[in-house]
Amino acid sequence: MTPIREDEARAEIVRYGALLYERRLAHGSAGNLSVRLDDGSILVTPTNCSLGALTPEQISKVSPDGILLSGDPPSKESFFHLAVYAERPQAGAIVHLHSTHAVAVSCLCHDDTSNVLPPMTAYHVMRVGKLPLLPYYRPGDRRLADAVREAAKNHHAVLLANHGPIVSAKSLGEAVSIYEELEETAKLFFLVGNRPVSLLTCDEVTELEAAFRN
Ligand code: 13P
Predict the structure, then answer these.
(1) What does the pLDDT average to over 140-168?
(2) Hey, which residues does 169 pair with through a beta bridge?
(3) Is the CB of 48 under 6 A from ligand 1?
């Protein structure tokens, strides 16, 4: 793997934070982004900050066991970021946002919480895959990090009940792209509403999973 330069990772977090804010996927002080560095420490957005107005210097650097090494006080969700990295050696970046449609899905009652968005489009299946709903815990609760750790063993995208999605990927650009796909599927889900929907069949989903393994 190409080494990750810390200054470039900081600049990327600033750039994607602004982009997500401009696209209205991030609002107020909600959401957090992180990138894993080669030594296992992470750069994560500070707590209570707007993703639209970050500076490279303020970004928090946190050790794998959660100690602040430099920068502003880190996101209260740093622990679930670290839990995902611990379970997914291939993950290099994480996006967690409170985007409107995905959060709306997280507030619905679901009979089957193992996958809460139906296979409406190929791109959702290819990019997001199965999206489990995890139980509600207050933001920052260490039990939330434990639940995320367990789900991250088998999923790169999970949805926190009454809260929002967490997406991990090799790079921040890829995590943002997957997050956007998830939000668009959630939007489609409400757009089609109760009308009869022609979903992809099990065979079609299996074919996509085999051809585009995440
Ligand atoms: P932080 O401001 O601590 O990152 O928390 C925001 C958030 O999205 C909580 O889930």
Answers:
(1) 98
(2) 93
(3) yes
Contact 125, 200 (CB under 8 A): yes
Q: Which domain holds residue 169?
A: 6-211
SS3 label, residue 134 = strand
CA 31 / ligand 1 centre spacing (Å): 5
Q: What is the pLDDT of residues 113-135, one digit of tens each?
A: 999 999 999 999 999 999 999 99
Which ligand 1 atom is nearest residue 46's CA? 4
Q: Which of 21, 27, 68, 75 to mutate to test the pocket of ligand 1 (most atoms within 8 A of CB)?
A: 75
User: Radius of gyration (Cα) for the chain, nearest Å?
Assistant: 17
Q: Catalytic residue numbers?
A: 77, 123
Q: How many residues does the chain have?
A: 214
In a domain, 23, yes or no: yes
Burial classification of residue 138, based on how many CB atoms lie within 10 Å of its CB (0-12 exposed, 13-18 middle, 19 or more buried): exposed
| Among the listed residues 208, 188, 207, 206, the one whose alpha carbon sits nearest the alpha carbon of residue 198 | 188
Domain for residue 1, yes or no? no
According to the model, what pLDDT value does residue 123 have?
Answer: 98
